């Protein structure tokens, strides 16, 4: 099978980290599965004065360790031969001539802006001034799109002056993950869950994206960003939308994105009086992660003394809709946490009565876990009878391990999303109004934190974050997934 789209793919920022770690491996994976049309050319753009051969050598060196397991060396060599390179300072319109000479006249084009967002505007303007944006050209833009609502609107205006909204693919790679798409399949491809997917049956939802790594060499970038902008505003709110949206009429881009937008608009604003009861921000101090002693955030390279940037956020979100009124959605993310974990947990309500006698069920309630990391799996926690004569119940997990269930090749998120962009499918990309609605919800919280005298709460590296994050749930008579053994 071939994607059947002979686009020219232009990678702005072609010598950068994202291209080497994610985009080249993703394009190579598509190539090796014959999902990249043979007529599709890959043209990298950056300022270094490489020729094609020198660029291929750079890629061979830098991207190699990120390729998918068991890749075929001859396919890799053939892929490298497809790469081209154009030296260009994107701030200089004259240097786009080299790119024009390489592009197929009149052919479809996919521009991937893998540079700092400060360059998005010059790239779009100069592409447009050079006549390189055609009717069917597309642009993929990476996060972060701005650091608040106003700056995000400004960037969107600049891109929007050169591309129509249906040509703009705002990537959120969490939407490209298999378990997230499986959540769509689970919800809308089965009749089983829909009657239960509501306030009457769901007690609470927990969305966690936890990392064990610290800020590494990206201290300066991270310090001006923080966990709220880096994770909550985009990835975690997008996951919340997939869990909470109403069934769309179809899987078409606007049907899905309209429903996600309604969720974002129904999020109850966290006004100042609720900051203390609904949000927790933290910053890691020294500790031990996976047996290694690690420094605190303030000791990391590039972090100014006394920085108040949050490396951890927990939020109680509420959705004002008939389906979800009264159901808390607890969102959390952090660096230097105990485990690397990305999952959505849907906790169902407890049984109204135990026919097995008091205590037989303990605090058990059914729980659906959609896990993206460490394993891509969906687990349904159920109660079952232990084998033997006595009627003794025990929690067990129905495990839909995708690797076991489907022995076909899986696509990593970036490969999946690149393929969708080549095919012009916007369903898993974020629309401007969604992105701005997300900023509208997080911005008042960030402003309140910035104005507050309070410092972020400290937590030891290698733990699950500040104790106050547990209190957020305990107040509601609940606990985080890992705290409650059911
Ligand atoms: P990076 O390593 O700093 O790469 C930046 C690229 O832009 C380099 O290829 C650089 O090459 C090129 N560049 C800079 N100025 C240029 C100019 N005037 N004209 C032409 N090219 C220019 O950045 P990155 O980590 O790959 O990140 C790229 C974008 O993706 C950023 O917006 C980042 O926030 C986002 N992102 C990155 C990651 C990640 O894991 N790295 C994850 C999510 C999002 P020259 O200096 O040689 O020109």
UniProtKB/TrEMBL annotation:
Active site, renumbered: 235 (proton acceptor)
Amino-acid positions noted as binding substrate in the UniProt annotation, renumbered to this chain: 173, 177, 211, 230, 335, 340
Keywords: Carbohydrate metabolism, Glucose metabolism, NADP, Oxidoreductase
Keyword Kinase: no
Boundaries of every Glucose-6-phosphate dehydrogenase NAD-binding domain copy: 10-182
Pathway terms, separated by semicolons: Carbohydrate degradation; pentose phosphate pathway; D-ribulose 5-phosphate from D-glucose 6-phosphate (oxidative stage): step 1/3
Domain Glucose-6-phosphate dehydrogenase C-terminal intervals: 184-481
Catalytic reaction equation(s): D-glucose 6-phosphate + NADP(+) = 6-phospho-D-glucono-1,5-lactone + NADPH + H(+)
UniProt keyword Isomerase present: no
Protein name: Glucose-6-phosphate 1-dehydrogenase
Gene designation: zwf_2
């Amino acid at each position: 099978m071939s994607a059947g789209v002979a686009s020219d793919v232009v990678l702005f920022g072609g010598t950068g980290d994202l291209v080497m770690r994610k985009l080249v491996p993703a394009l190579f994976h598509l190539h090796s599965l014959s999902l990249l049309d043979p007529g599709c050319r890959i043209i990298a753009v950056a300022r270094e004065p490489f020729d094609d051969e020198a660029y291929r050598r750079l890629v061979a060196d830098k991207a190699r360790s990120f390729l998918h397991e068991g890749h075929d060396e001859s396919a890799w060599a053939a892929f490298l031969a497809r790469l081209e390179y154009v030296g260009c300072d994107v701030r200089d319109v004259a240097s786009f001539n080299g790119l024009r000479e390489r592009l197929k006249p009149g052919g479809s084009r996919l521009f991937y802006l893998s540079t700092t967002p400060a360059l998005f505007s010059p790239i779009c303007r100069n592409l447009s001034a050079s006549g390189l944006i055609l009717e069917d050209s597309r642009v993929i833009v990476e996060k972060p799109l701005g650091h608040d609502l106003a700056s995000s609107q400004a960037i969107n205006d600049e891109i929007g002056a050169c591309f129509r909204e249906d040509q703009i693919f705002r990537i959120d790679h969490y939407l490209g993950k298999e378990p997230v798409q499986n959540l769509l399949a689970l919800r809308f491809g089965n009749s089983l869950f829909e009657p239960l997917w509501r306030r009457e049956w769901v007690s609470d939802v927990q969305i966690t994206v936890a990392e064990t790594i610290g800020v590494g060499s990206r201290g300066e970038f991270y310090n001006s960003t923080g966990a709220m902008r880096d994770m909550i505003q985009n990835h975690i709110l997008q996951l919340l939308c997939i869990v909470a949206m109403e069934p769309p009429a179809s899987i078409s881009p606007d049907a899905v994105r309209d429903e996600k937008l309604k969720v974002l608009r129904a999020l109850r604003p966290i006004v100042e009086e609720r900051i203390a009861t609904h949000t927790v921000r933290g910053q890691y101090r020294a500790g031990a992660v996976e047996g290694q002693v690690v420094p605190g955030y303030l000791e990391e390279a590039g972090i100014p003394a006394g920085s108040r940037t949050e490396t951890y956020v927990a939020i109680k979100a509420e959705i004002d809709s008939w389906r979800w009124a009264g159901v808390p959605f607890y969102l959390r993310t952090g660096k230097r946490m105990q485990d690397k974990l990305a999952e959505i947990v849907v906790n169902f309500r407890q049984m109204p009565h135990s026919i097995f006698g008091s205590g037989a069920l303990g605090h058990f309630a059914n729980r659906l876990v959609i896990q993206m990391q460490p394993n891509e799996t969906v687990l349904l926690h159920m109660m079952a009878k232990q084998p033997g004569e006595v009627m003794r119940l025990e929690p067990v997990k129905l495990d839909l391990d995708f690797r076991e269930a489907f022995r076909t090749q899986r696509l990593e998120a970036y490969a999946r999303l690149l393929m969708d962009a080549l095919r012009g499918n916007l369903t898993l990309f974020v629309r401007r109004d969604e992105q701005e609605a997300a900023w509208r919800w997080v911005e008042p919280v960030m402003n309140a934190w910035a104005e507050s005298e309070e410092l972020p709460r400290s937590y030891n590296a290698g733990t699950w974050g500040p104790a106050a994050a547990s209190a957020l749930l305990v107040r509601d008579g609940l606990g985080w997934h890992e705290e409650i053994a059911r």
